[in-house]
Structures are given as structure tokens and as C-alpha cells.
Specification:
single chain, 235 residues, alpha/beta, two-stranded antiparallel sheet, 6 strands, 15% strand
């Protein structure tokens, strides 16, 4: 926590001292805190699946043909190139200031924003929260809620002992997350926007959306900063 607070104070007082989030150089940076070279490697999500928001051929991907628990997910960028550097720096190098511009880009993708009643976030494992000092998804969600003029409410919690998602297969992710999260408050037909940093298979979003729906949400939408492309052409 002290490391994070020191970094935050340093950024507030001397933002020009922070290097490029992509390569670490100290060249002039853009609003994403990327140098010119790394900025060119930031890939907007295009030709996306209209359900999960992952880049593909512009049609519903094979994963989404099986059905989703959320109505729609959107992503600002593909999880490639410089985008990986931004997310890694935010999650593991205490560069929480990156959440400010990340939230702007995420909200810009939310064409469903007028429908949203509540903004919430994917819960963090207790072990990760203690180690990192903050939940990166919550930090993004708080900023998105502020930009959308909607309340941020923590609606989900994760049980102790849950396995990290990145260590599991797609099928294991679904089972792991479905068994490890639960709703905190009952909902009364509200439309919820769920915020996370990265959309990989959608297992986390599906599990969270299911719990929110079971808690009474009428619809669940999802917004992330980046998604793993779904280049799965239909045969």
C-alpha cells in the first residue's frame, strides 16, 4: 500500500516523470501515456462480435452462439501490443492513474449507457487485494460511474480460497467463478453495468451476470478496456 501511495503522490506532483507504459522510454507521451511508437500499436476493437465485443469478422462468434448471461459487452481495444503494457502497469506497477484515461475510453464505447441504473465491478480475490492494495476493476468502475453520472455499488464478493482465473482453462474458469462469487444486495429490476479490465473467454462476465440476474437485475451489460480477439471464422 505504501508503494502505491508513494507512486500516486509522485504522479500527482510530477506526472512528467512517469515513463511510457508500453516500452518504458521517456519520450514525449500522449494521453494514454504512450510514446509515439507504442501509441501506434494500440489497436481499437473493430469488426466485433455484437454480443461479446471481441474482434472477429463482425458476426456473432461461436462462443456467443451458445448463449451469454449478459446482454452485451464492449471493449475499447484489443488485448494486444501496447494495450497489454497499460493493463499490466495498472495492475502490477501501481500506475493507478492510468484508470482515468482507461475509463474515458470504456465509457465512449457504451452505446447502452442511458439504460444503466447501477455500475459495479468484478470482485477481486482477497489474496490479490491484500497484495496489490486495490481492485483494478473497482477503480475503473468508480471512474466509469462518475463519467456516466450513475451510482457505483459493490454488488458482488468473492469467497476466500478461489483460484486465480489465469491459471485455469475456459471450462475451469466458468466452474471456478460460478462457485466462488455471490451477490451482496438484492436488486429490484435495475439494469447493471459490470466493469472489468480484460475480457478473455467471458467466463467471468457470464458468472457475474448470472449472479446479478439471480439477485434481481433485469439486464446486465459489460464494459472492459480490452478484449482478447475472437478470430474464429465460422465453417
Amino acid at each position: 500500500m505504501k508503494k502505491f501511495l508513494d507512486a500516486l503522490a509522485r504522479y500527482t506532483l510530477f506526472p512528467e516523470d512517469f515513463p511510457c507504459l508500453g516500452c518504458g522510454c521517456e519520450m514525449p507521451l500522449d494521453r494514454h501515456h504512450l510514446c509515439q511508437s507504442c501509441a501506434g500499436l494500440l489497436e481499437p476493437a473493430v469488426k466485433v462480435c455484437p454480443v461479446c465485443g471481441r474482434s472477429g469478422d463482425g458476426t456473432v462468434c461461436k462462443d456467443c452462439e451458445k448463449g451469454r448471461r449478459f446482454v452485451k459487452a464492449v471493449a475499447a481495444y484489443n488485448y494486444t501490443g501496447s494495450c497489454k503494457g497499460i493493463i499490466y502497469a495498472m495492475k502490477y506497477r501501481d500506475t493507478l492513474y492510468a484508470a482515468d484515461f482507461m475509463a474515458w475510453d470504456m465509457v465512449a464505447c457504451c452505446d447502452f449507457a442511458p439504460k444503466v441504473d447501477i455500475v459495479t465491478s468484478v470482485p477481486s480475490r482477497r489474496e490479490a487485494l491484500l497484495r496489490r492494495g486495490y481492485n483494478q476493476s473497482r477503480e475503473l468502475a468508480v471512474r466509469c460511474a462518475r463519467l456516466m453520472d450513475r451510482p457505483y455499488i459493490e454488488l458482488l464478493e468473492q469467497k476466500r480460497g478461489a483460484k486465480p482465473q489465469h491459471e485455469l482453462s475456459a471450462a475451469q474458469r466458468r466452474e471456478n467463478y460460478a462457485d466462488s462469487i455471490y451477490g451482496i444486495y438484492p436488486l429490484e429490476g435495475q439494469t447493471v453495468l459490470l466493469i472489468d479490465d480484460v475480457f478473455t473467454t467471458g467466463a467471468t462476465a457470464d458468472a457475474c451476470a448470472q449472479v446479478l440476474t439471480d439477485s434481481g437485475a433485469s439486464e446486465v451489460y459489460v464494459a472492459v478496456f480490452a478484449s482478447v480477439p475472437a478470430f474464429d471464422k465460422k465453417s
